[in-house]
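=== RUN LOG ===
request id: a7f3
mode: sequence -> structure
chains: 1
length: 522
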Amino acid sequence: MKKVMKRVTTLLVAALMMVLFQVPATADTKGSHLNFGCYNYSDSLDPATNTNSSWAGLRFGITESLFKFSKQVVAEPNICDEYTVSDDYKTWTLHIRDGVKFTNGNPVNASAVKNSIERLYAATDKDNGGTGNSVPRGYLTYKSITADDAANTVTIVCDNPTSNIPGILAYPYFAIIDTTVIDKETIGTGPYKVTEFKPGISVDMVRNELYWNGEVPYDTVTVMFINDSSTKAMALQSGDVDLVENITTASDMERLKADPDYHVSVAAGVRTANAYMNFNGALKNKDLRQAIMMALDKKTMCEVTVGGMYTAGDSVLPSSLAYNYDKLTNPYPFNRQAAIDLLDKAGIVDTDGDGFRELDGKTINLDHVAFTSRNLDEFAEAVALQLADIGLKTTVNIRDYDTALALLNAGEFDLWTCNTLTVGVGDPQDYLANWYSGNSKSFGFYSSPEYDAAYEKLMVEVDAGRRLDLITELQQILIDDAATIAYGYYNSSMFSNVHKMTGAEIATIDYYWLTTDMKPVK
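=== RESULT ===
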């Protein structure tokens, strides 16, 4: 066995903020208090609901996982303090840190951890009545999970050799929650405890007096949901909030960077903006997909349309990561005339003179679903304009995140634009799983025997060199198949008022926003 161990406030602006944010004027802010403005990524905190609900719990300091990623994207012990793994990488025994309690006082023992993991799988098992849209099976499948409360250990026997259990269990899906109260509320082990959750408006929290991992700096915290980027910047500058995430308006960002009253923290780009394609619709036609690729000027989109917030790229994995980006080739570089010629040759032409091409006798009208976070709506609008130049009609469909996600899972889209953390478990295997036929029904129904064969090898490969070769191969297959639109790579950011707080740094893996490193200025 191996053991691995500034405030510019007027009454007018204040009133405007109250209207915009709908934040209760009666919120209790005795003692040290933090106001945090962020995009509303989800109306739930339950890790089983969907991907962003799981992230919300971790980001707000409500839940925690067994492991936690360092700045170097290494999974380190957290609620699990040590573990052993068998030589075949199938059996993992995790020791649960002694003395950890949920914020309601219930103990976090081996059984509680086992129940939390098993409940995640049951709540997302649609074949057996599960309603959650999270997909833990895309990360880990196991034969058994057992709890030994006397030893305070949980043993997981995996279906296949699994070399990255710490990284997988650091993913927000696997946040440990108290299953005895999940039908009423989401209780975790984090530094803050929810006192009131108003979906779409705010979350009020108090210090977790039972926190196991050091002093909790704030007595109370209010998370204010602010979806418009410029409004977030205005709120920070007016003093209505002390901290905001991901201001994506270039002019606002540059203004704050130049102002010594604010601290701007930016993390290296490990996120990709891409559009999934629905292979059950018009985009199953490869000529159409290839033409779309050649019609899109992604460099202009990234550098001009979204003000340099992204670096353009061709692969689903960022060029900043060590996955052989420089060895990949793109057979469909930007060439508008080549795109037009390809469509003409394929018989995808405008026969009725309305300006838009038809396929199989019907006008192509691509339903492009996106949401407003991280400039994604701007990408969608730019795609529509550029595709119109080659005679393809696109309807941009901007939704809130939860609705957009439901449309993705239901397959009710042609293009679905998003921004995704590509190394969510410390490497890209889970992200690349979105195009594996066993999972792709939730991401556009892409299917490729060649891709599946390489991915199945990756799932069981533990040698680092061979894994790199497989990851490189998978990237190239997606590029060659024109399987998804990779726009470019995003840098996450955090903005804070230096007169109000310290320690506001964005994590490389941006699961962790409200941390105990964030403290009020004394």
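=== NOTES ===
The two ends are 49 Å apart (CA to CA).
The first strand starts at residue 2 and ends at 3.
=== END ===
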